[in-house]
Design brief:
single chain, alpha+beta, five-stranded mixed sheet, 27 helices, globular
């Protein structure tokens, strides 16, 4: 709370009895005498009151809210959940869980005779006190289960209860969010085994959804140890938190797996997964590092999760805190409702990470792997106490991506990653508005999973690191982890840890970046006065105060002043006013002034440069961010200096700079451009640059390039998207040759190759290729299928009597399959509709009127059947327009 003037109790008392002044330090006895003896000598005021107290008329309060502002307080804890044992089996056809939960708990402080749990849409069979085997009474409203313990329990005692129940997670779904698409908590995939995908069960507990498959106190500030007994068909593997203690075959082809987690963690981090996984194990010291993938990807597992053991070692060493758990597993599942989830000791990831080794060239999964791994310390070992403080989980995990890249791939790769995070946050701030990083006023807890908690949180941690220094940063994190392991935390705990280590008062930093909203917008202008020999740097904070708190930011940073001889001087400055001018004595005008040369500050920075200054920026910049900006800004390559700089950038140490420079050049500017581009296409170490080089070559087709392009297509060590671009180049040179090569590549189900092959086939006019397009449509999922439909439609229009072929019959069957995803069904129906419209446009222009009319009738009949059998209301509405 911010109080402008401090008024002592003695002053208020004197004011009420009519005294106009008082002594500065009256005694208690003297205060008493003021109230009873009005003849007392007046006191002397020894300070001036800035704002006199005014009595305001009622009308002045008209705009003052009648209610307190929204405040999302941390969940009240009345019970301490100590241990959870779950005995589970699964009813696949009904997608339900048959469970027995044994919960051990004690009152946190106050005695209690009842125990309230989260349990959503359960059927409760029985609740029993395991201490005396007596049945207990309960009240249940479908959300909260309140158990009458029959006696009062104190904090010096504990209770063990058994809950016999059936959970029906499918019937408890209320929706999802942009980050987590469904809140069912537990998911049965292909439960009847009738779909073209594996049978699986997996959980997704965040935010508070695990209570849809077991009873618990489903809040992030709760934690307990855990045992999990899973009865499954012997053909399946199971995964859960902790270690697999035993696996015992049962009657009727079943097996009972016993998993034990003897370190406490939050209930939302409990997990299970069941399925026909292939398991691949690596080691970090004595810790098992397990990868669970579909059998097809077993040989690629160590590439899918590349460098995981090294990451564990890196983070352990940086934090000076060993990996806190007894194993680490990563599990890939189908139809996952989020990107990945950091369940304690066992991360679940979506199938998007599951690719073959060649598909992972320069496009691996290191970001998501490092992100979820770092959560094992920040989020699992130390857990946010409330969703308002979510950035204590997600900001750290986002920043871990930077830390890993910096260590493994160099500072420039990390800085480019930071630039993407910054742009993501700024775009979100512009489109969706800003809020406090620690947000106690969110509309829905699911909204906390946004570019603030993630991107901004990581960017703020980076600023904190650069401000206190690396050694202090990691020492503070170590202190924080040790002080709060197996506990829930808020942002003030992080501040106090940094203050304890550094000795600094960091309230201003945390108030500004964690407990306030927005970011600075900085307008920078420079001027050199040759007469006074003074460089002036004017910096204005131009952010709109209504959208940013505080209205003025305190920003310690640097200026880099590039002198005429190339020497770069660093000057430390601190922004703390709306408008400031920093002046420096210089004998000569500088070539360039760079604000925040390391690009550490979270801000929108507007600093105009001349064309010559952009050239100098490229040569003098300390940050790859500035080099990227310089190359992007340099235009007018007819200018010799500009052209020379762009040519120099072709050999830049960072791949994106090389790629951007290549995009700007052409044969008209550089005589040996084609040879130079071919050389980059062959030998640049980054596949994205090789891709750009081949694209450049394809823009000016040359038959002499055919052997090289064929070599790229069939190079098994080349990234698929590079090979796909080479195949595209072949098609521009010779369509027949391209089709022959496509036939050889049809079995490769890579989206980049599939896209190019489908494009080549779609323009061929040969209906024989419809089979390939139908096959790939069948294998596609969701939105990605729409591109394939457009290719099929193009080919169908070129192919006579296609409406009676298997291609159109297949589209009809997809549209009628209520188990398929809505995008695929919509695409199939729309393709039939578009083909019908195409035939209608041909009436009157073709000599085959009877055949065309017959085609239209068949397609219309297919559409009518699709419309009549569709059960999805959204699709029904769309189909009405066909």
């Amino acid at each position: 709370m911010k109080i402008r003037n401090y008024l002592s109790f003695t002053f208020l008392l004197a004011f009420l009895v009519g005294c106009s002044s008082m002594r500065s330090t009256p005694t208690r006895e003297h205060v008493a005498s003021i109230a009873t003896d009005t003849t007392e000598e007046p006191l002397v005021i020894d300070r001036v009151i800035e704002d006199p107290i005014e009595i305001m008329p009622d009308s002045e309060f008209a705009d003052i809210p009648n209610k307190l502002p929204l405040y999302r307080e941390t969940t009240l804890r009345t019970w301490d959940l100590l241990h959870t044992r779950l005995d589970l089996s699964f009813d696949w056809p009904n997608q339900s869980v048959i469970g027995k939960a044994q919960l051990t708990a004690r009152p946190l402080f106050y005695p209690s005779n009842s125990f309230e749990l989260d349990a959503v849409n359960f059927k409760i069979n029985k609740i029993q006190n395991l201490g005396d085997s007596k049945d207990l009474k309960w009240d249940y409203d479908g959300q909260k289960l309140k158990v009458d313990l029959g006696r009062t329990i104190t904090r010096n005692d504990s209770v063990r209860i058994l809950i016999d129940y059936v959970a029906m997670p499918n019937e408890s779904e209320k929706g999802g969010s942009q980050a987590i698409q469904s809140d069912k908590g537990l998911f049965f995939i292909n439960p009847m085994g009738t779909e073209d995908k594996p049978m699986q069960i997996w959980s997704q507990g965040e935010t508070e959804n695990n209570s849809k498959w077991f009873p618990t106190i489903d809040k992030p500030n709760e934690r307990c140890t855990q045992e999990m007994y899973l009865l499954v068909d012997d053909k399946f593997k199971t995964i859960s938190n902790g270690l697999l203690i035993s696996s015992v075959k049962q009657a009727n082809g079943m097996r009972l797996d016993y998993w034990k987690m003897d370190q406490p963690h939050a209930p939302y981090l409990f997990m299970i997964a069941v399925g026909s996984f292939a398991k691949v194990t690596e080691k970090y010291n004595s810790i098992d590092v397990d990868y669970y993938v579909e059998p097809e990807y077993a040989a690629d597992a160590t590439s899918i999760f590349a460098n995981t053991p090294e990451m564990i070692g890196f983070f352990s060493n940086k934090l000076n805190y060993p990996f806190p758990w007894k194993k680490y597993a990563q599990v890939v599942v189908r139809d996952y409702v989020s990107g990945a989830m950091e369940n304690t000791t066992a991360t679940i990831l979506g199938q998007y990470v599951q690719r073959h080794k060649r598909e992972l060239i320069d496009e691996g999964n290191e970001d998501v792997v490092s992100h979820e791994l770092f959560h094992q310390w920040f989020g699992d070992l130390v857990t946010t106490e409330s969703w308002s403080n979510l950035t204590l989980n997600e900001g750290f995990a986002n920043y871990s991506e930077y830390l890993w890249k910096e260590y493994k791939h160099g500072r420039e790769e990390a800085d480019f990653h930071r630039l993407n995070d910054l742009q993501g946050y700024l775009a979100s701030a512009q489109q969706q508005g800003v809020h406090d990083l620690i947000d106690f006023e969110y509309a829905d807890k699911e909204n906390m999973f946004d570019a603030h908690s993630y991107n901004k949180g990581g960017l703020v941690l980076h600023m904190l690191r650069k401000m206190v220094g690396d050694d202090a940063f990691y020492a503070s994190l170590n202190y924080y982890l040790n002080q709060h392991k197996y506990q829930s935390v808020e942002a003030q705990d992080l501040r106090l840890a940094f203050e304890a280590v550094t000795g600094q008062d960091l309230n201003w930093f945390f108030n500004q970046w964690f407990y306030s909203s927005g970011h600075p917008k900085l307008d920078i202008q420079t001027d050199y006065d040759a007469n006074s020999k003074i460089l002036s740097v004017d910096i204005e904070q131009s952010q709109v105060p209504e959208h940013n708190t505080p209205a003025i930011f305190r920003i310690p940073t640097e200026l880099a002043i590039v002198m005429q001889n190339g020497v770069v001087m660093r000057k430390s400055i601190e922004l703390n006013e709306r408008k400031q001018t920093f002046q420096f004595d210089l004998d000569n005008a500088p070539k360039l002034v760079i604000f925040d040369p390391e690009k550490n500050i979270l801000a929108e920075v507007n600093q105009a440069f001349t064309a010559q200054e952009y050239i100098q920026l490229y040569h003098s910049a300390a940050s790859v961010t500035d080099r990227i900006a310089a190359i992007q800004a340099i235009e007018n390559l007819q200018d010799a200096d500009n052209l020379k700089t762009i040519q120099l950038a072709l050999k830049d140490r960072f791949w994106l700079v090389r790629g951007n420079a290549l995009e700007k050049l052409s044969g008209e500017l550089v005589p040996n451009f084609k040879a130079m581009t071919l050389s980059m296409a062959k030998s640049d170490p980054n596949s994205a640059v090789r891709f750009r080089a081949i694209s450049k070559l394809n823009a000016e087709p040359d038959a002499t390039q055919m052997p090289f392009l064929k070599q790229v297509v069939f190079n098994e060590k080349e990234a698929y998207y590079v090979s796909a671009e080479a195949l595209h180049g072949i098609s521009t040179l010779n369509a027949d040759t391209a089709i022959v090569i496509c036939k050889q590549l049809e079995d490769i189900n890579n989206p980049d190759l599939v896209e190019v092959i489908s494009e080549i086939y779609s323009t061929s006019g040969n209906p024989a290729h419809l089979a390939y397009l139908n096959k790939r449509i069948d294998e596609s999922e969701g939105y990605s299928s729409l591109s394939l439909y457009s290719k099929l439609l193009t080919l169908a229009k070129k192919s006579p009597k296609v409406e009676g072929t298997a291609a159109i019959l297949n589209l009809k069957s997809i549209a009628l399959n209520q188990n398929d995803d809505t995008w695929k069904r919509l695409g199939a129906a729309k393709t039939i509709s578009e083909l019908k419209l195409f035939y209608q446009s041909q009436l009157g222009e073709s000599t085959e009127q009877t055949r065309i009319q017959d085609s239209i009738s068949k397609l219309q009949a297919a559409l009518m059947e699709i419309k009549s059998k569709e059960t999805n209301k959204q699709l029904q509405g769309i189909y009405n327009s066909f």
